[in-house]
Amino acid sequence: MVEAIRAGTYPPGSALPTEPRLAAELGVSRPALREALILLQEDGVITVRRGVGRTVSHHLPPRGFEFLKPVEALLGEGRQVVTVPTARTREEPTDFSTQHLVLPAHGEVRFWESVIEVGGLPACLTQEWASDETLAELLPDAAAAFDGPAGRASSMLGLLLEAGRGLPLTGSSAIVATTLGRQRGTQLGRPADTPGVLVTQVVRLDRTPLLAAKHMLPPGAPALPVWQAR
Known about the structure:
Layout: H1 2-6, H2 19-26, H3 30-42, E1 46-49, E2 53-56, H4 71-75, E3 81-91, H5 95-101, E4 109-118, E5 121-130, H6 132-138, H7 140-146, H8 156-163, E6 169-179, H9 181-188, E7 195-205, E8 208-217
Helix pairs in contact: 6-7, 7-8
């Protein structure tokens, strides 16, 4: 249903067909359709008015984490968001960056750390790694942007996506439940034993990893919407 709405089969503001016709068009039973329509109404995709019927909303819920976006854009949807840099440096590769960026054991890797504030409150601690050598070879515009003034007010991913417009960039993520720990808790203004959600992310150009990241979300952080389809 949602994909059909986004594709224009049922345009925003239009009335949906009757239940029998809609069930036939979608190839589902009427009980299954009614349940789906209830969920779509709860999610704000459609509205229901007595005497009018079901209408497609003019503004659909935004696409979410299944699309490659900077974390500040995902968390700040419709809200005031600020990226506060806490580290812009180079460091020895960690186990995490070595594994996901396929780095040599020795040398340096670019490392950024930022606190994403939403509505004036810390909503995410973001840590990002990238290999200057790989970027210089495959996406030099990104390396130049990292060293420019925009790097003080953006995540690394935000600048990478801007520099790589039109390129086949893809991302993969894993989501786990954990606790903040002492250092991250201090940075987010929470006790060390506060539960949190850790999202790890790797961004690739074709099959080559360009960026690896960790995003720590404390309780109260805005939800990351994810649209799923079978």
